Model the fold of this input.
Amino acid sequence: MAALSGQHRLSGQRRLERRWGLLMAVPAILGFAIFTAGPMVASLGLSLTDWQVGGAPSFVGTGNYTALADDELFWKSLSATTYYTLGAVPVSLIVAFVVAMLLNQRVRGLPVWRTIFYLPTLVPAIANVVLWIWIFNPDFGLLNSLLRQGGLPTGMWIYDENLAVPSLIVMSTWAFGNTMVIFLAGLQGVPQHLYEAVSVDGGGPWQRFRHVTVPMMTPTIFYNLVVGVIGTFQVFNQAYVMTEGGPNNATLFYVYYLFRKAFRESEMGYASALAWVLFMIIMIVTFLMFRNARRWVYYEMAGGR
Amino acid sequence: MRRRELLALAGLVPLAAACGNDDDGAAENIQLQFMYWGSTFEQKAVEKMLKAFEQSNAGTKVKPLFTPDEYDVKLNTLVASGNVPDVGYVPMAMSYRLAEQGKLVNLFSYLDKYPQLASYLPDAYLWYGKDQLHGVATANEIELLWYSKAAVAEAGISAPPAQASSAWTWDQLVENAYKLTVDQSGKHPDESGFNAGQVRQFGISSSITYAAAWYGFLRSNGADFADPTGTKCLLDTPEAIEVFQNLQDLIYKHRVAPGPGQLAATGDDVPGTNILLKTKRVAMIVDGHWSLLDMNESKVDYGIGVLPKYDEPFTTSQVAGASAVFAGSKHVEEAIELFAFHIDPRYVDLYEQGLWMPQERKYYEDQAAIDSWTKNDSHPSEFRTAVVDYARDHGVPDLRGRLKNLSAINSDVLTPALQEIETGKRPAAAVLKEVAPKVTSRMQGWHHTQEL
Done:
C-alpha cells in the first residue's frame, strides 16, 4: 500500500472512479458470494456428511461418493442426461445455425422474422413446457394430429419410455433464440472480402459456406457448444413438470434426481455429493472440449492458429 | 446515510423483534401457524375452521400457510431453516422421519387431556415407538367408485352398487365399462371400427401408480403388499399379478380406461375427478372420499359406489397425510389445543361439507353421531352404505402409515415399475417378478402399532 501510494498517487478522478466502481460492483459481488460461492462451499462440506434435513450432520468422509457407484439411479440419471445432451446440443446448434444463416440473408421484413424466431425464447420456461405437454398429447396433441392427417403412425411421445428423451430433444430446439442471435452476430462479423475472394476464384454458395463461413464461425460454434453442453447437462424443467422423471425413469435427468434426493427425500448430504460430481463432470467435459478446440477452432487474430 | 446511522438502524431491528417476542408471551396475543395443502375449495374450508378456532380461543391468532404444491419441498426447507409451523399436515413420507428426529411433539401424554383423541379408529394413530405418537391421519379417507349419473343413464346400465355386499365383481366392472366407453363416432370398444385414439368418454379410470387406488383390490384378491414381518414384498404372487394385469388390461386389452397422458396431463396433474365426471371425460373413477367437497362445489351430477371386489370387498382407508404438532412451537399447549380442535367434528364443518371423514369411532357406530355429519345436502343418500358402513367394515389401512421406508421404495423402484405396467410395454407378471426382490431389499418392517 505504502509503495503504491508513494510511487504514483492516484489522481482524484481515478480514486473517485475506483471507489464508485467498487461500490457499484458490490451488489454483484455480494450476490455471488452469498448465493453462489457460499452455498458451494457449504455443499462441499455437506457432501462429506450424512445430513438429513432436521437431523444433525455427522461426518462420513467420502462415503456419499463411494455410495454413488452402487446407486442404480445415479447411473440411470447420468445416462439419461448424457443421452439428452448428445441429442439436444447438436440438434439445437444445427437448427440455430441454419436459422441464423437464413436470417442473415437480405430478405424483406427481416426484423419481423428475427423477432418471430426469437419469440419462443421469451416464453417463460414453464409456459413453454406446458405448451409442449399439449403438443405431445397422444389424443389431441398437435403432433399426433398432424401425423394422423398425413397418414403417418402416431406416437405416445413423452409417455413412451423409448420416445420420451427423443421427444424432449425435439422440444429443446424450440428455444434456440439465444444461440441463434450469437450465430447471427458471428455471421455478420465474417469479412465480406473473403466471400468475394471465393467468388473471384469461381466458387459457388457451397464453397463459400464450406471454406469461409464455417471456418470463420468456428469460434462462435465453439462458444455455443460449450455453453450448450454446460446448460444441457443441467436440464431440469422438462423432467420436473412434464414427466416427473418417468416413464420408468426414462427422463430421470441428473439435476431432477438431485432435487428429488435433496428436497423430497431430504438427503442433503447425498444430494450435495451428487451436485459436486456433476460439477466435476461438467468441468472435465468443458476442459476436454477446450483441449480439443485447438484442432478445429480458427481464430483470425491468432496468426493462423 | 452515514455508516453509523445504518448500524444504529440495524441494531434496532433485533430489538424490535425482541419486543415482539415479549408481546407474544402475554396471553393477549398468541400467533400460531397452520400449514396445509388442498384444492381451492379446501383452502377456504380450512381457513374457515381456523377462524372458528380464533373465535373460541380469544387472544390466539392462527396464520394459514396454504401450500398447494411442493408441500414436502417447502416443509423440508422450513425444517432446515428452523422455521417450522406450529401445527399442520405432514406427508406420511416425512412424518415418521421428523418424529424420529424429535421435530414433532409426542402426543401420547395428551390423550388423557383430550379424551376425544383417545377413541379414534385404531388405524388412525401414527406410532413411531412404544407410547410414542407423532400424530394421527388427518381424516379417515377411503377409496370409492365415483360415477357420472348422466353417463350411467345414457348407457342404460344399473349404477355401481352402493353396498359392499352387492359390489360388482371385476368382470361386471369390465362389462359395464365397455358400455360406458364411447369414441368420437359413438362406438364402443367391442364394436368394429372403434377408434381407441379418439375416445370421447372412458368407462373407468383407476390409477396403477397410486397405491391407495389398488391396495383394496390387492387385499380383496387375497394378496398383500408385504408378508407379516413387513420385510418381504409379495407383489410377485399370482394374486397380486392378477390385480395389476387386470388394471393394465383395462387400458390396452379392453380399452375402457385412459392410458398415460390421455387425460391431458402428466403425473398428479390430471384434472380433478369432479371435472372429469362433470365433462363426462370419464364415466367412473376410483378416487378418495375427499373428492366429495369438490364434487358438491362444482355441482357435479355424481353418484358413489363401492369398489369392485374379487373375493371379500375391501377398500383402502386412512388415505390421508398426518396431522401433527411441531416441536419447535413456542406455544406447545395452544398448538395442541388447535390440533385437537382442527380434527373435532363438534367444531369443524369440514366433515359436514364432505372433505373429511371423522376418526372417532362413534361417528361410524352411533346413529346420532353418524347423522351429525352425514345428514345434510352435501352427503347423498347412498353415503351411509357406500361410505360409512363400507369404511367401518371393509377398510384396510393405507400402506403409507404402516410400512417403513415406503417413500424411498416408491420413488426408487416401485413407481418406475408401475409406470412400466401403465405404459403397457410388458405384462404385469414380468415387471412385478423383477421388482419384488428390489422392493424386498429396501423393506424395513412395519411401523409400531399398539392398543390404547
